Predict the structure.
Amino acid sequence: MPLSDHEQRMLDQIESALYAEDPKFASSVRGGNLRGPSARRRLQGVALFVVGLAMLVSGVAIKATMIGSFPILSVIGFIVMFGGVVFAITGPRGPVPVDKAASSSGASRSKRNKNTGGSFTSRMEDRFRRRFDE
């Protein structure tokens, strides 16, 4: 169900107040850069995990890698394993690539959105993004 005119005006006022009060936060929320990890990133994370596991096992097995009775190579291997898992499950932090043709003008975008229909949530997301682009 679409918003009434009064509700739409209230939402616009809230959005403009948020952007005026904290533009850095508003731009980070607007960015929408929450993406999952790609297959390549997962593979790299798994490779880091395996390298870390090999370092951990070899640090315990080889006495030359110990400083006193502290297995330094094993600790480094564990850190590499942990980093590999974190790398594999997180997505990239960079901005989401934007299609240059789609963001060229607001008028053509609004005309295109009216013609395509789409789901309610996608229309609302497009409307929200359009307001911040203006």
